[in-house]
């Protein structure tokens, strides 16, 4: 078997400039952000390594319980990251909400962004009846916005 | 015997892409010095210029956050497993205020 036939058609997260995500997952992220408003909400969507497909939503506690700051609880993070390792998953999406400002990465978001392979999804809940949802890559301090392609899963995984 | 260290994606440029490396030391400080000798530059990503643990990373000894074990003075033994993860944090708050809030 030649190396060219291995992994053919596989796309790596870093070269895609679109986040494709199931509408049910987006709805659940928005619901989480609304539930925790006016505090910031945060979480992860795990997916199979290398697939760039967010598949398993993991809402996380905001250990800071703040309207302007979020932080994963370090022990919860260890547990979740180990679980992903055991399942051959990686954090495909890392999401959080801004509750009084736009859905754009702050300087704090950029400074902390430590998963170069992840899509950073931001939800703004500052408007009571509509959400702004945007997605970004944050690599070495450089922010690149990307499109979000919301799809309806036709088959249960 | 040695201490196994799991390295996150963002720091694998220092380890030639390796997900796990081995090191030695009886405290976290010694281990980090040993790792830095083999993977030049790694220390600067874990420890600040002031000599404290960097706020951007979490380091665990087996199942415990080293911040609860004496931080850089945490005692290590052969066979321990160290995990390094990027801290996941952010928010609308200004960076200086966020750093002060974290107090690390």
From TrEMBL, chain A:
<keyword id="KW-0479">Metal-binding</keyword>
<dbReference type="InterPro" id="IPR000555">
    <property type="entry name" value="JAMM/MPN+_dom"/>
</dbReference>
<protein>
    <submittedName>
        <fullName>Proteasome lid subunit RPN8/RPN11, contains Jab1/MPN metalloenzyme (JAMM) motif</fullName>
    </submittedName>
</protein>
<dbReference type="GO" id="GO:0000502">
    <property type="term" value="C:proteasome complex"/>
</dbReference>
<dbReference type="InterPro" id="IPR051929">
    <property type="entry name" value="VirAsm_ModProt"/>
</dbReference>
<dbReference type="GO" id="GO:0008235">
    <property type="term" value="F:metalloexopeptidase activity"/>
</dbReference>
<dbReference type="GO" id="GO:0006508">
    <property type="term" value="P:proteolysis"/>
</dbReference>
<keyword id="KW-0647">Proteasome</keyword>
<keyword id="KW-0482">Metalloprotease</keyword>
<feature type="domain" description="MPN">
    <location>
        <begin position="19"/>
        <end position="142"/>
    </location>
</feature>
<dbReference type="InterPro" id="IPR028090">
    <property type="entry name" value="JAB_dom_prok"/>
</dbReference>
<keyword id="KW-0862">Zinc</keyword>
<dbReference type="InterPro" id="IPR037518">
    <property type="entry name" value="MPN"/>
</dbReference>
<dbReference type="Pfam" id="PF14464">
    <property type="entry name" value="Prok-JAB"/>
</dbReference>
<dbReference type="GO" id="GO:0008270">
    <property type="term" value="F:zinc ion binding"/>
</dbReference>
<keyword id="KW-0645">Protease</keyword>
<keyword id="KW-0378">Hydrolase</keyword>
From TrEMBL, chain B:
<keyword id="KW-0812">Transmembrane</keyword>
<feature type="transmembrane region" description="Helical">
    <location>
        <begin position="82"/>
        <end position="102"/>
    </location>
</feature>
<dbReference type="Pfam" id="PF02597">
    <property type="entry name" value="ThiS"/>
</dbReference>
<keyword id="KW-0472">Membrane</keyword>
<dbReference type="InterPro" id="IPR016155">
    <property type="entry name" value="Mopterin_synth/thiamin_S_b"/>
</dbReference>
<dbReference type="InterPro" id="IPR012675">
    <property type="entry name" value="Beta-grasp_dom_sf"/>
</dbReference>
<keyword id="KW-1133">Transmembrane helix</keyword>
<dbReference type="InterPro" id="IPR052045">
    <property type="entry name" value="Sulfur_Carrier/Prot_Modifier"/>
</dbReference>
<dbReference type="InterPro" id="IPR010038">
    <property type="entry name" value="MoaD_arc-typ"/>
</dbReference>
<protein>
    <submittedName>
        <fullName>MoaD family protein</fullName>
    </submittedName>
</protein>
<dbReference type="InterPro" id="IPR003749">
    <property type="entry name" value="ThiS/MoaD-like"/>
</dbReference>
């Amino acid at each position: 078997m030649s190396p060219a036939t291995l992994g053919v058609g596989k796309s790596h997260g870093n070269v895609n400039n679109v986040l494709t995500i199931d509408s049910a997952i987006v709805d659940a992220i928005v619901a989480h952000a609304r539930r925790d408003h006016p505090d910031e909400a945060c979480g992860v969507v795990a997916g199979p390594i290398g697939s760039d497909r967010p598949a398993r939503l993991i809402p996380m506690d905001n250990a800071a319980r703040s309207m302007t700051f979020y932080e994963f609880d370090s022990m919860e993070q260890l547990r979740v990251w180990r679980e992903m390792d055991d399942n051959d998953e990686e954090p495909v999406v890392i999401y959080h909400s801004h509750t009084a400002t736009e859905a754009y990465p702050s300087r704090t978001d950029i400074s902390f962004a430590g998963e170069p392979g992840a899509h950073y999804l931001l939800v703004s809940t500052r408007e009571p009846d509509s959400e702004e949802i945007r997605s970004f890559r944050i690599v070495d301090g450089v922010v690149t916005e990307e499109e979000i392609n919301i799809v309806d899963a036709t088959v249960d995984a | 015997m040695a201490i196994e260290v799991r390295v996150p994606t963002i720091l694998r440029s220092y380890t030639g892409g390796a997900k796990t490396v081995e090191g030695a030391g009886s405290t976290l400080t010694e281990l980090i010095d040993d790792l830095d000798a083999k993977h030049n530059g790694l220390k600067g990503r874990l420890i600040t210029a002031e000599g404290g643990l960097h706020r951007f990373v979490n380091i665990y000894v087996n199942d415990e956050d080293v911040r609860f074990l004496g931080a850089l003075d945490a005692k290590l033994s052969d066979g321990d497993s160290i995990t390094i993860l990027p801290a996941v944090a952010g928010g609308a708050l200004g960076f200086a205020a966020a750093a002060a809030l974290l107090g690390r």
